[in-house]
Amino acid sequence: MGADTVTNEPLIRVQGLRKTYVQQQPFSRGKFLVRALDGIDLAIRAGSSFALVGESGSGKSTLALCMARLEPPTEGKVWFDAQDLFSLTGPELMLVRRHIQLIFQDTAAALNPRFSAEEVIIEPLRIQSVGTRAEQRDRAVHLMEKVGLPSAWLSRRPHQFSGGQRQRLAIARALALQPRSLILDEAFTGLDLSIQAQMVALLQNLQSLEKLTYLFISHDLGLMAHVADEIAILHRGRIVEQGEPGRLFSNPCQPETRALLDAIPGRHSALSFGQS
Amino acid sequence: MEPLLEVRDLHVDYFTDGMPPVQVLRGVSFTVGKNEAVGILGESGCGKSTLALAILRLLPFGSRVRGAVFYKSRDLVNLPEREMEKLRGAEVSLVFQDASSSLHPTLRVGTQIADVAAAHHRGWSATRRREGTEAILREVGFDDADRIYASYPHQLSGGQQQRIAIAQALISEPSLLIADEPTSSLDTTVQAEILALLKRLRREHNLALVFISHNPAVLAEMADRLLVVYAGQIVEEGSVQQVLSSPLHPFATALLRCVPKEVRHNKADRSLSAIPGSPPDPAETPVGCPFAPRCSGRMDICGSRMPAETQPEPDRKVRCFKYGG
Questions:
Q1: Cβ of A275 under 8 Å from any chain B Cβ?
Q2: Cβ–Cβ contact B256 with A under 8 A
């Protein structure tokens, strides 16, 4: 995505990240350690699209939470635009938070059901005290149009939107503060194929317009090959392989990568899907 | 040859207080042969799941079914409820998308499978039921059938829960399995495992399969024949090879462009292209072809009346004015 805006400067850098959870064993005094992340190093260039791909339980979402500074790591560092995320406090932290926005899989749960679409979109502006009430409202109208929703729907509540429309609303909210990066945690999962394709097109357009950096988190290697410039395969808290999609598909080096490639539906059916 | 299942001009309407009826299925006809796997492809809200429920007469109160459903020449629409109860499971089983909500949360999964065995194999002793349940657990891929038998649904992963649902559906030895998006909420790797399992079970049990999905790539693996559903109608029918390699209906063509194919090599590659607009609201009765507002090959006639079904090639049907309609 967005070739013209890609630079070599990393916007987000992760070094030696470890995250260990202590889990209490049920009905006993035993405790055990869950090593969710086991030494992660990665760098995401500004304006590029990076995908973390792995099975359930591979640590993808934990890594996203650490990179969004929502979960402190046990060890290691995360830099955003050369600032150490976990040493920031107060107004500096507030400013950085604007630039790291999250989109989740389950928008029905992520959006406050008692808010109207307008309140959903302008809540980040209110929290960060950006603009007057009238400016916030204008921005909401503008954002609805930008994500392809009629601005007349600003008074509707999230449950009145379909799954795909709710995901658009979540994107509008995420863009409210004009962020530099979006973290999309399984944002396509659970959507119909046709809606998924619409979301991909919307995100591609937004990236070239807004010079956004994307971090996708997904279990679907086939789809990620379409949206990402670089893919890291995560397995049991470690990155086992990383590279451009073309290289991973033509020459996968690790068994975990091959397993994810084999799992792409239709790969064994030798059908061309409407290409003939 | 006599088909196993025949659906003839099936209409389903939903009634809500004070609202005009919502036509969810508008005249659907198809057959499923013995041992055949038929894939049903369509977007959310097109009526796919309603079709599965209508076949087994499991639709909620407030729905009206017109048309005919024959299973082994028995008329399911007019079968007495007691007979229908015997047929469900014994002849036709159903697997849903969300196994966690179709399993009882506070009963051991083994017990839940054994209960199905008790309902369908009246002569089985408790020991025989236990053995039968453990055998089917091994068959759906659990090596430690003992431990799984005693587990509760929440102790199992999504993929394991779906295996339990499949075991439950198959212990009654049906001839037809209807699977409604059985892998849509699973990881791709787990999805691949479940698809491989269903393929093996189908072969070993001589099962006919109706597989419902929004994903053509999944159906490419599972189906022999494909029905494409749009706004409650079958808009295209043919072999899986025909429909997926050279689709006729503009909706099928557009949906196939949504499948992520090979790697995207450059930024200008827009081979993954979205269908503009959204599916029609089932509450509104369309004038003309329901796909017309989203169709790139739209003609004047498309907005005037509904296209009829034509047969442009042998064993292939399509509902579009481009082919005579």
A1: yes
A2: yes
**Nearest C-alpha of chain B: how many angstroms from A77?**
30
Question: What is the CATH code for A3-99+179-262?
Answer: 3.40.50.300
Confidence category of residue A90, pLDDT binned at 50, 70, 90: very high
- Give the count of Cβ contacts less than 8 A between chain A and B: 133
Strands of the A83-84 sheet, one edge to the other: A31-45, A10-24, A75-80, A83-84
Q: Which residue of A has its CA nearest to B276?
A: A198
Residue A274 confidence (pLDDT): 66
**What's the pTM value of the predicted model, to 2 decimals?**
0.89
What does the pLDDT look like over B76-93, one tens digit per residue? Answer: 999 999 999 999 999 999
- Tell me what pLDDT residue A2 has: 46
Whether A274 and B247 lie within 8 Å, measured CB to CB: yes
For residue A200, the distance in angstroms to the closest alpha carbon of chain B comes to 8
Span B285-325, pLDDT tens digits: 888 999 999 999 999 999 999 999 999 999 999 999 999 88
What is chain A's percent helix, strand, coil content, to nearest 5?
A: 40, 25, 35
User: What is the phi/psi pair of residue B79, to 5°?
Assistant: -70, 135
Domain segments of chain A as ranges = 3-99+179-262, 107-178
Q: What is the 3-state secondary structure (H, E, C) of A212-253?
A: CEEEEEECCHHHHHHHCCEEEEEECCEEEEEECHHHHHHCCC
